[in-house]
Write a structure and sequence with these properties.
By secondary structure, this protein is α/β, with parallel strands linked by helices. It is 41% helix and 15% strand. Bound molecules: phosphoenolpyruvate (PEP).
């Protein structure tokens, strides 16, 4: 949709892995060593309790650290929650609206919008995840779901800034299933996302990185990175293996 060059970005969502801090630190170090010199932005999203340790392990490397979630309020009586101001200094990205948060923890479109607003207000780049479930896909609702989720997620953002926002198209049926989307389907989702962003601000839409996520593995990665509206990947399972993750990053480097 646009010729504006966008630097590739590959983010690793470690979810509730690995089992201990030492393994997490060595995974981060191994990723840094295996991706050294590649012209790709990399964000590692470890469990919150290790954000600090992973940041220290990555000190001196270009790899950024992201959180997997945040609370929309700056502070308050919200037991177990972490706010955007608390993330400052340990994370400069945050995944918002992941389907596991929506499905398992009841996050609504309104919750996602509030979290996106909080992240942007504090200068943390939200990686906003949108995507349809298997049932929605079967019912022909893919475009409607992506549209509803993205429009809602950005409803509190007055001015889009292409460098302050990342969007990930993550079809729910492809996450953790090994049933990755085809390159064409992933591109269709990414193109719709970019068109929706362009409806708000064409300049910002040309700069926003749109990722594909869902069972991305090294052998499939170039299928996605060759697509015009896909600028990288949000990687779950394969991000826990430094060599597999590095192979995906190499594919993104082209
Ligand atoms: C994810 O959790 O965002 C994800 C894409 O997971 P996986 O790569 O394991 O499908």
């Amino acid at each position: 949709m646009t010729d504006t060059p966008r630097r590739p970005l590959v983010a690793g969502n470690w979810k509730m892995h690995p089992p201990d801090r030492a393994t997490a630190v060595s995974l981060a170090r191994d990723v840094a060593a295996a991706t050294r010199g590649l012209e790709v932005d990399i964000v590692l999203c470890p469990p919150a309790v290790w954000l600090d340790a992973i940041g220290a392990a990555l000190d001196g490397t270009p790899i950024r650290v992201g959180a997997q979630n945040l609370h929309a309020q700056d502070s308050g009586a919200f037991t177990g929650e972490i706010s955007a101001p608390m993330l400052l200094g340990v994370a400069d990205h945050v995944i918002v609206g992941h389907s596991e948060r929506r499905r398992l923890f009841g996050e609504t479109d309104a919750d996602v919008a509030a979290k996106v607003g909080a992240a942007i207000e504090h200068g943390i780049v939200p990686i906003v995840a949108v995507g349809e479930s298997a049932e929605e896909r079967r019912a022909g609702q893919t475009e409607a779901v992506i549209t509803r989720q993205l429009v809602a997620a950005l409803s509190g953002v007055d001015e889009l800034d292409g460098s302050a926002l990342v969007v990930a198209y993550e079809p729910v049926w492809a996450i953790g299933t090994g049933d990755a989307a085809s390159g064409d389907d992933a591109q269709a989702g990414a193109a719709l996302i970019r068109a929706l962003l362009a409806g708000r601000d064409p300049g910002a839409a040309a700069a926003v990185r749109v990722l594909y996520g869902g069972s991305v593995a090294p052998d499939l990665a170039s299928t996605y990175f060759g697509q015009p509206d896909i600028d990288g990947a949000l990687v779950g399972g394969a991000s826990l293996d430094a060599e597999a993750f590095a192979a995906i990053v190499r594919a993104a480097a082209g």
